[in-house]
Amino acid sequence: MSENSVRYSKLIKDEAMRLGFMACGIAKAGFLEEEAPRLAAWLNQDMHGTMGYMENHFDKRLDPRLLVDGAKSVISLSLNYFPKERQDTDAPKISKYAYGMDYHTVIKDKLFELLNFISETIGEVSGRAFVDSAPVLDRAWAKRAGIGWIGKNSNLISKKSGSFFFLAELIVDLELAYDQPFDTDHCGTCTKCIDDCPTDAILTPYVIDAKKCISYLTIELKEEIPTTFNDKMDNWMFGCDICQDVCPWNRFSVPHTEPAFQPNESLLNMKKEDWQDITEEVFKGIFKNSAVKRTKFKGLVRNIDFLKNKPHY
Predict the structure, then answer these.
(1) What region holds the 4Fe-4S ferredoxin-type domain (predicted)?
(2) pLDDT > 60? residue 49
(3) Which of 8, 289, 297, 305 has a CA-to-CA distance to 23 between 20 and 30 Å?
(4) Is 132 among the residues known to form the active site?
């Protein structure tokens, strides 16, 4: 490891903190040997449901050097989204990550700033920014970069801050000082995430059947939600936070300080009746720059209508 690698790594991490990231770790770019058979088995058992895109670019998902020519380092970053305020308790629920502006836009802007900083401070560096919309195994790289471990609910967990954060990467052709992988699993004997999942989506520790996951059912699934999930949605209309809410490590979560993630006041003030009568105009107003736009108005209404089968409606 050269002195320059150590110096460059410190510069990058300091700038990442200045940009508002929660953590920054660096791993050597290479083939993900452990993840390859797991990903293949998960796909072969059709646990990805209608997410056909998960089958694409299998090799690229496992080797970042196929995404960036000459890639030497994967810079993993996390960004807190844990909110201070919450929705009305009786209203259909939206996952906390979607309270504010679409995270793809917010994080991409920060990543480009960081990439520009690297080029201006260190020299011409070739690299690409990734925010979960490309074939990159975010959690695997964050684990390799020492940010945390992958919990039984398949989320990356940090001892310092729980799991309510986004993950993103810069893959660059610059040799840096690499962090120690996070090899210790601190879930222990706890099974709260497995026990509390109302749809039994966590088949065994670390293995999720997406077809049973409420987040998949309310966001990814474009057809009708199967009636087998009647009375099992726990009032979620977009995403689901149950396996994170019950995780003991999230007692260390603290509210974020990112202005772009501040929730729309209209979202917080919407009552159960308001959601049941929502119009497309209101939908567009509340979710103008939100990740919720992914379901489109029709999809959100489908989800709300499905919840009406619940006894408390």
Answers:
(1) 178-206
(2) yes
(3) 289
(4) yes
Domain residue limits at 15:
3-85+96-172
Sorted by sequence, the CB contacts under 8 Å of residue 210 that are 6+ apart come out as 47, 48, 49, 51, 201, 216, 220
Kindly state whether residue 303 falls inside one of the protein's structural domains. yes
Planar angle of CA 296, 87, 109, nearest 5 degrees: 60
Catalytic residue among 90, 132, 195, 200: 132
Does residue 91 belong to any structural domain of this protein? no
| Residue 132 marked ligand-binding | yes
Same domain flag for 234 and 136: no
Residue 139 forms part of a structural domain? yes
**pLDDT level of residue 313 (50, 70, 90 thresholds):** very low
pLDDT tens-place string over residues 91-131: 999 999 999 999 999 999 999 999 999 999 999 899 999 99
Domain-located, residue 284: yes
Contact 171, 128 (CB under 8 A): yes
* 160 and 276 part of one domain: no
> Is position 213 annotated in a ligand binding site?
yes
Residue 148 to residue 299: CA distance in whole angstroms? 34
The model's pTM: 0.95
